[in-house]
Amino acid sequence: MNNWYVITGGPSSGKTTTVNMLSGLGYSTTIEHARHYIDLQHATTGQTVAEIRAKQMDFQRGVLQMQLEQEAELDPQETVFLDRALPDSLAYYRFLDLEPDSRLLQALPHVPYRKTFILDLLPLAADYARTEDTQAQQRIHELLTEVYSSLPVPVEAVPVLAPEQRTQYILDRLE
Q1: pLDDT at 175
Q2: Per DSSP, what are the bridge partners of residue 46?
Q3: Domains and CATH numbers, the chain
Q4: What string of DSSP letters covers 48-116?
Q5: Helix (H) or strand (E) holding 28
Q6: The predicted structure's pLDDT at residue 35
């Protein structure tokens, strides 16, 4: 086990806002790789978000590769808050009805996170990278909860609160 804490939840649950607040308090954090992948693909190929997301298997594999690389480089002794983590990929593979990558399936039984915080959903807010509707938002949230609950990692639901209160809620429950 290490000192890594996962911040996750369905689309538009306030993950990135929470992670950014933790970063502002001096904690080490990571970025969300799905959004980063979209940004990189757009910058290097000129593809639109729709074109990038249309190739779902390529998209999921690209995000997974970034996540694997990032987690391999993290210091296990450092307290780090991850904006999504490897198990999120399995939830998305299931949501999209795709066969999960073997690298993901091999890694999941060994995830070393100290704890996972699953943020309750906020009203769905549209942005350039988010393509889900409310029904998809709910289903992804359910799948994330199923996946993380099946792993040997403590899971804590985080209620809807003001961003500062949500961040403090998490800090008060670190192990």
Answers
A1: 80
A2: none
A3: 4-171 (3.40.50.300)
A4: -HHHHHHSHHHHHHHHHHHHHHHHHHS-TTS-EEEES-HHHHHHHHHHTT-PPPHHHHHHGGG---SEE
A5: strand 28-29
A6: 81
Residue owning tokens 């729709």? 50
CA distance 46 to 78: 37
Q: Residue 65 corresponds to which tokens in the numbers above?
A: 């590769």
For residue 73, is pLDDT > 80?
yes
Distance CA 64, CA 141 (A): 18
Residues in the chain: 175
Q: How far apart are CA 77 and CA 151, in angstroms?
A: 21
Nearest to 37 by CA among 23, 21, 22, 53: 53
Name the token pair of 56: 């779902």
Q: In what order do the strands lie in the sheet with 155-158?
A: 28-29, 80-83, 4-8, 115-119, 155-158
Among 49-53, 74-78, 121-125, which is the least confidently predicted range?
Answer: 49-53
**The pLDDT of residue 25:** 97
For residues 18 and 173, the answer to whether their CB atoms sit within 8 Å is no
d(CA 107, CA 38): 24
Confidence label for 130 from pLDDT (cuts 50, 70 and 90): low
